[in-house]
């Protein structure tokens, strides 16, 4: 008589194929991580599309990012920067 295979998952486990097709009906807010229903998430997504948040950077930060990128370019070319 053959012995049972030990590599098989337990029978109560849901197969991965079923889990991949499962529709997710719960979501989390991208701002504070609170749980949202599918309808609340769709409403939030629509609001963000119609009125995107202000992502304007401080001009000093923009200048600093520009200088860091410039320094990275010089280093990749081989120009030493102190």
Automatic annotation (TrEMBL):
Example of a GO MF term: transferase activity
Name this protein carries in UniProt: Glutathione S-transferase
- Keyword vocabulary terms for this entry: Transferase
UniProt superkingdom: Bacteria
